[in-house]
Amino acid sequence: xxxxxxxxxxxxxxxxxxxxxxxxxxxxxxxxxxxxxxxxxxxxxxxxxxxxxxxxxxxxxxxxxxxxxxxxxxxxxxxxxxxxxxxxxxxxxxxxxxxxxxxxxxxxxxxxxxxxxxxxxxxxxxxxxxxxxxxxxxxxxxxxxxxxxxxxxxxxxxxxxxxxxxxxxxxxxxxxxxxxxxxxxxxxxxxxxxxxxxxxxxxxxxxxxxxxxxxxxxxxxxxxxxxxxxxxxxxxxxxxxxxxxxxxxxxxxxxxxxxxxxxxxxxxxxxxxxxxxxxxxxxxxxxxxxxxxxxxxxxxxxxxxxxxxxxxxxxxxxxxxxxxxxxxxxxxxxxxxxxxxxxxxxxxxxxxxxxxxxxxxxxxxxxxxxxxxxxxxxxxxxxxxxxxxxxxxxxxxxxxxxxxxxxxxxxxxxxxxxxxxxxxxx
Amino acid sequence: xxxxxxxxxxxxxxxxxxxxxxxxxxxxxxxxxxxxxxxxxxxxxxxxxxxxxxxxxxxxxxxxxxxxxxxxxxxxxxxxxxxxxxxxxxxxxxxxxxxxxxxxxxxxxxxxxxxxxxxxxxxxxxxxxxxxxxxxxxxxxxxxxxxxxxxxxxxxxxxxxxxxxxxxxxxxxxxxxxxxxxxxxxxxxxxxxxxxxxxxxxxxxxxxxxxxxxxxxxxxxxxxxxxxxxxxxxxxxxxxxxxxxxxxxxxxxxxxxxxxxxxxxxxxxxxxxxxxxxxxxxxxxxxxxxxxxxxxxxxxxxxxxxxxxxxxxxxxxxxxxxxxxxxxxxxxxxxxxxxxxxxxxxxxxxxxxxxxxxxxxxxxxxxxxxxxxxxxxxxxxxxxxxxxxxxxxxxxxxxxxxxxxxxxxxxxxxxxxxxxxxxxxxxxxxxxxxxxxxxxxxxxxxxxxxxxxxxxxxxxxxxxxxxxxxxxxxxxxxxxxxxxxxxxxxxxxxxxxxxxxxxxxx
Lengths: 426, 506
Hints:
The complex is a heterodimer. The longest helix of chain A is centred in the last third of the chain and has 17 residues, at 386-402. In chain A, strands 2-1-5-7-9-11-13-15-17-19 form a ten-stranded mixed beta sheet, with helices on one face. In chain A, strand 1 and strand 2 (91-92) form a beta hairpin. Chain A starts with a helix and ends with a helix. Chain A has helices at residues 5-16, 27-40, 56-59, 127-131, 139-147, 373-381, 386-402, 408-424; strands at 83-88, 91-92, 105-109, 152-156, 164-169, 176-185, 190-197, 202-211, 216-223, 230-239, 244-252, 256-265, 271-281, 285-294, 300-310, 314-323, 331-340, 346-355, 361-369. Chain A has one domain (24-370). By secondary structure, chain A is α/β, with parallel strands linked by helices. Chain A is built from eight helices and 19 strands. Chain B is an alpha/beta fold. Chain B is 22% helix and 33% strand. Chain B contains twelve helices and 24 strands. The two termini of chain B are 12 Å apart. The interface between A and B is large, with 36 and 35 residues.
C-alpha cells in the first residue's frame, strides 16, 4: 500500500539528511533496514501506535535544541567498580573510557566492523530489530539500524567481574545521536550492563540482545536529567531456554522519552522482567511501550511500570503480552500504575493481552489516582512533616518497580536519586 | 450432540430433562418462515434511500436527513482496526428493505396481523398476545401479575409488525412504538433527539444505518414516570441476503425509569447477512435506563459458513445530573460481532455500568467492549466483561475509559476476564485508559485463564459429564453478569451459555 503523502515527504526529508555508512560486513543489513524504513515510512500522529506520543520532533530533519544541564550532583553509578564506555553526543570517547579488556567479555566498537568482513555481530545486527517489526512497525528502530555509526558490540562469554557501564554524555545543545549496540550472551554466561546519561539533544538508540540457553543479563538504565532532551530507544531481546533477562529503567525529566522494549521467548522455561520507574515534572512526556511475545512453553514475563507525574506531566504506557499458539504454561504479568500529584498531569494507558493458548495465567492491572489521603494522614499524625510524608508515600509507590533490580547496591542508588528528585521539588 | 438422539435417560433422570437438553443442543432458531415478501431492489443509492423513506411515509425533513447521511457514507471507509476477519462485504449486493407483503396495509391492531407472522414469534417464544409474561420462565404462572408484564415491539426484517400493550403504556404517558410511527406521530421528539447521541457521521456503519434504517423502536418516558412494565424489542431477520438496519431511540425524561430488553435471532443460512443497528439513549436528570440484550443471531455453522455480521453502534448519553444507565449484554450469536455500547457521563454524579458476557465458539469472532467517557464531576462507571472462547473463535474486549480534566472525583472500575476452552481459540484485551485529572481513580484488571482442572474434576467426580461440568463452571464464571440481567433474560442467558459451548469440549 502506498504511504500517505505527508508520511512519504517526512520520511524522504529525514532520509535525505542522513548518509548510509558504507563498507564492512554490516552493509547488507543496513541496506535492508533502509528499505524497511522506506516501505514503512516514519511514524506520525495518525499511527495508532503513536496515539499518545507525538513523534514529529523525533522524525524532524533537525534535532530540536536542548540545553546541557550543569551537573549539580555526581553522575549515577560513579561510585561503582565498573568498566566505563563513554560516548559524547553519540561518539565513542576513547580517552574518557576504560580499557575495553575484561575477562569473560569482549567489547568492540561498532565502527570497527566497517573494516571487517566476518564478525559474529554480523549475524545479529538488525536481525532482532527486523523480527521486531511484526506485527507492529517500529520505523525509528529500522532507521537506527540503517544509519547508526557508533555503538558497541558486547560478547559475554563468561561472568565478568564488574558491570559494563555505558555512559552517554551530552555536550552540544544541538546534537543528534544514533547509537546501536549488539549484545550476545553465551550459554551459561552472566553480565550486568549499566547505562546512564542524557546522551544528546536527540537520541535514537537501539540495543539488540540475544541470550543463549541458560544465559543471564541484567540491564539497568538511568535516563539523564537534561530536561529538554528527547529520546527514542528500542530494546530487542531474544531469550533462549532457561535464560534470564532483567531490565530496569529509571527516567527523571526529559521533554520526550519513548522507550520501547520488544522481548521474544524462543526457548522454554525462560524469565524476562521489564520494569521502569519515572518521575516527571512540567512538560515531561514519558512513554513506555512494551511488547512481549511468548513463543515457548513455561516462560515467565513481568512488566512493572510506575509513573509519578506532576505539573502537567504526561505518562504513557502501552504494554502487550502476546501468547502464541502452543506457548502453554505461560505466566504473564503486567502492571502499570500512575500517581498523579496534581490535577494537570495525565496518564494514558493501553495494557493489552492477545492470547492463543489456553493453559496460561495472564493478568494485567492498571490504576491511576492521587496519593492516598489516609496514608498521608497516618504519617502526619505520627509527626512526619507533610512534604516528607508525601515523599515517603511516593517512594513506596515506586518501590515495586525498583525491587525488580536484583542488585541491592544499584537499587539503593536508584532510591537515593528518586528521593533527591522528590525532595528538591518539595 | 448427535449422540443425544440415541441417548437413553439414566435412571432417575426424567424425560423432561432429556427433552430440555435435546432442545438446547442446537441453534434452535435456525428455521425460516415461508412468507411472501416485498423487496426493494438490491443495492443502496439515493433512490433506495428515498424509497425506504417513502415506504415509511416519512416527512420531507427525514428524507433529507437520510440523504445527507448517505452522501456522507459514500465518502467513508469501512473500519479495519477490530480484530475480526471476514470476506469483503459487497454493500451493493444486499437487500436494504424487505417486508412481508401482508404488511403493505398497516394493521391497525395485533388482531389484523398476518397469522403467519404471529406464529413466527410464537415459535420464537415471543407470542405477540398481550400476555403477562414471556414464555419459558419457570414458575411464572404464580408470579404476581403486577410488574411482570413485558410490552413487545416485534421487528421482522425491515418492518415493525406490532407493538403490544400500547394502550396501557399510553395511560402511563409512555410512548412505545416503532420508530417509523414515531417519526409520523411525534416528529418534535424525533427531530430533537435523533442523531444527537450517535451523530450521522459517527462511524461507517452508523452512517449507513442513518441513511437506510427501516424500522426500530421508539421509547419516550415522560418526567417522573416509572415505566409500568419492561419494554422489549424482538428482532428477527428472515429474508435471505437482506441486511437489517434498525434504529432505536430511547428517551428517559427527568426522574423517569425504564428497563428495556432486546432479543434477536435469524434463520440458519449459508451466506452471511448484515446487521447494522444504532441505539441511542438519552437520559435526563435523575432518570435511569436499563438496557439488556441477548444477542443470538445465527453464528454460522461449525465450519464458519454463514452467520450474521453484527456491526452495532450503541450509546447512552447521561445528560442530566444523577442520570444512570446500565448496559447488560449476552453476546452468543453472530459470526462477527463489532459492538461497543458506550456511556457518556455528562451530568454530575451520573453513573454508567456495563456488564457483558461474550461467548464465541467454532469460527465466531467477537470484538466488543464499551466506552466510558467521564465528563461530569463525581461520575462513576463500572465495567465487568467476561469473554469466553472455544473452538477456533476469537474474542476481544476493546474498551475506553476516559476521565476528562473536569471530571473531578470520578471513579472507574474495570474487570475483564477471559476464559479459554481449547488451544485453538484466542482471547484478547485491548483497553484504553486515559486519566486527565488526579482526583479521579481508575482501576483496571484483566485475567486470562482456562477452565480450572480442579473444578472440572470436582464436578465430574460427582457424576456430571464433561460438557455439563464445563457449562457449570462457565456459568459460575459469568455469574456477576448473569445476576445483572432481568429475570426473563437471566434464564435464557444461562441456557444460552451452555448451548453456545456445545461441542467445545474433548
